[in-house]
């Protein structure tokens, strides 16, 4: 996985400690520990959690990360369909439009 700099890029001046924790601990240590969970599996889990909570701006970013980590559009659709029964139908509707946008970018 590529070195994460989004925290520092977006929040480095405003919240430098948070940015460092995001980039160095969350992504630099937790996400990098692939002997326990692969980056692909972490992406699927993260996307499921964000969709369940209705955190759609973060979900869109993690859909892109998941796509980079090898998750297919078909897998994302299956995950959302499954979670629709547990997390809510409206959340699934919202998540599908994000998946469509993220995976259609490739075709353009």
From TrEMBL:
Q: Where do the Carboxymuconolactone decarboxylase-like domain residues begin and end?
A: 16-100
- Cite the SUPFAM superfamilies for this sequence: AhpD-like
Which InterPro entries does the entry link to? 4CMD/NDH-1_regulator, AhpD-like, CMD-like
Its recorded name reads: Carboxymuconolactone decarboxylase family protein
């Amino acid at each position: 996985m590529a070195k994460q700099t989004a925290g520092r890029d977006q929040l480095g001046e405003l919240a430098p400690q948070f940015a460092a924790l995001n980039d160095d601990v969350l992504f630099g240590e937790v996400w990098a520990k692939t002997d326990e969970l692969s980056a692909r599996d972490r992406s699927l889990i993260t996307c499921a959690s964000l969709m369940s909570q209705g955190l759609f701006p973060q979900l869109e970013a993690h859909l892109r990360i998941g796509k980079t980590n090898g998750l297919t559009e078909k897998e994302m659709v299956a995950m959302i369909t499954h979670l629709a029964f547990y997390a809510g139908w409206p959340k699934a509707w919202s998540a599908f439009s994000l998946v469509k946008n993220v995976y259609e970018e490739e075709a353009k």
